[in-house]
Specification:
It is built from 9 helices and 8 strands. The protein is of the alpha/beta class and 253 residues long. It has a single domain, classed as Alpha-Beta Barrel (TIM Barrel). Strands 1, 2, 3, 4, 5, 6, 7 and 8 form an 8-stranded parallel sheet that branches. It starts with a helix and ends with a helix. About 4% of the residues have low confidence. The structure holds zinc ion. Zinc ion binds next to loops.
């Protein structure tokens, strides 16, 4: 079975065995990695189920892997979990302020910087990396907010990446981007992913073996469950969600 916690561990073990340099977004932006070696940026978006992310952060730490975890505002109140996460990982802000402020730029920017400050206080980390939370049901493109930000010490997880990377995300419970199930996550990386028919985690590992290029993965821990009722429920949710997204995409066209 794919997209289980076991499979996630297999993926990390594979990366360690292959001596792939796995780095967080912060390390990428601060150039704290070996530039003579290829790298893999590992990012996790905490969209739902914070406890899954706490577990994944621990798994990363067990493998000696440093990764980024992007937090939505709604989880700021769970201090203990965020403290736990920040011990071993780099925390980033998963922003949705532009949508919440209904595209009011002034309000959105004020919210954005207030939330970054709050997250820094909770996690006792400097918040450098941010990532837009995409809502396929919304007509607002959250990423537009970052284009209004002039602070050089804030880096966007898509827009500030300057190297070509092979980008993969587990959105829709597949690593493949058919450009139908992914609205805002694709950014500038879509064309790269379409060339390779990587759907399963096993195919992803084969792909890594057959390329020397830099990589970038975005993982949503809530999609990965132990095989059982949680897994099945998430599978059904993802399948239904993919169908809805395709319909919305057709309507928007
Ligand atoms: Zn998100």
């Amino acid at each position: 079975m794919d997209f289980t916690v076991k499979k996630y561990k297999e993926l990390l073990q594979f990366l360690v065995q292959q001596r792939i340099q796995v780095i967080s977004l912060d390390e990428y932006f601060l150039s704290r990695y070996d530039k003579t070696q290829r790298y893999l940026i590992l990012r996790h978006d905490i969209d739902r189920k914070l406890r899954n992310s706490v577990r994944f952060a621990q798994i990363c730490s067990d493998f000696g892997i440093s990764a980024s975890f992007m937090v939505r505002k709604k989880y700021f109140k769970y201090f203990k979990s965020l403290e736990q996460l920040s011990v071993n990982c780099f925390m980033g802000y998963h922003y949705e302020d532009y949508t919440k402020a209904k595209k009011n730029r002034q309000i959105a920017l004020k919210m954005f910087f207030t939330h970054i400050k709050q997250l820094a206080q909770i996690t006792k980390q400097r918040i450098l990396s941010v990532a837009a939370h995409g809502n396929p049901l919304s007509r607002i493109n959250e990423k537009e907010l970052f284009t209004l930000i002039t602070a050089p010490k804030i880096k966007d997880s898509y827009l500030s990446i300057i190297d070509p990377v092979y980008y993969f995300t587990d959105t829709g419970r597949t690593w493949a981007d058919d450009n139908k199930t992914n609205f805002y996550d694709c950014g500038i990386f879509v064309a790269l992913r379409k060339e390779f028919n990587v759907k399963t985690t096993k195919e992803l590992m084969d792909f890594i073996l057959n390329t020397q290029e830099n990589l970038y993965f975005t993982i949503h821990p809530e999609r990965w469950n132990d095989f059982g009722s949680g897994w099945l429920l998430q599978y059904c949710k993802d399948s239904l969600f993919n169908i809805i997204k395709r319909i919305i995409r057709k309507i928007k066209k």
